[in-house]
Amino acid sequence: MTSITVPWTFSTRNLPDDDGRVYGFGITTPHETVLDITRATYAISLLHRAAENLGIDILHRCVLSSLATIDILRAMGVRSALKSFRCGHDVFSAERRQRSITGCITAHNKPDRINAHIVVRWGSDFILDPTLGQLRKPWNDVATAGVVPVLAPTVESVLDANYFHARRYAFALTDEGCEISYFELPKLVEHSTRLWRHEPDARPERRAPLVKEAVRLMRLAPKMGQEVV
Hints:
By secondary structure, this protein is an alpha+beta fold. The protein is about 25% helix and about 25% strand. The chain has a single domain, classed as Atu2299-like (Roll), CATH 3.10.550. It has 4 helices and 11 strands, in the order βββααββββββββαα. A hairpin with a 3-residue loop joins strand 6 and strand 7. Helix 1 (about 30-55) packs across helix 2 (about 60-75), helix 1 (about 30-55) crosses helix 4 (about 205-220) and helix 2 packs across helix 4 (about 205-220). The longest helix has 24 residues, at about 30-55.
């Protein structure tokens, strides 16, 4: 099997105003996996460009964005196991002792948002997060979107947020050393957010314009990574 080395991060030029990042650890990765990463980042790029063209702010709409990403990947011909995935997410700066977190019991509920983060799970390999930028604060360097490798089942990793502990599905470090985590929701939060598919943004008609525009852009620039406008 052909293998190549994945860099720590790389940018996706197609994302407007910012970059998308693949968070890795310089590990040697099968060539097929790198192709999956390329397709994932391209699909997220198309989503953000489509949203920009249509004037739709998707950064704080993880339900809409994750489901639209799956539809775009299907339109690209991806037949791998893709599913929307509910979890908590967190970014922590050890240096500045600051944290931004969604999915903990003590979070302040907002009427228009659920206390969980919806991402795309690509088989057992990656978490695709088209709205990672929700965690961006003045003190961190979190990108607009990201692709993060999922921890192997044999790896035990726990998010320690002082007031609660949770099993981590995936984590990565940003260039500035902030730690991004995707974690298992506490049981109380898991129960209170279980009906997220009833959210208005989960309706197919909500994401249909985004997917249609993304497919249009893809047909204009069918080569993955080519600039789309």
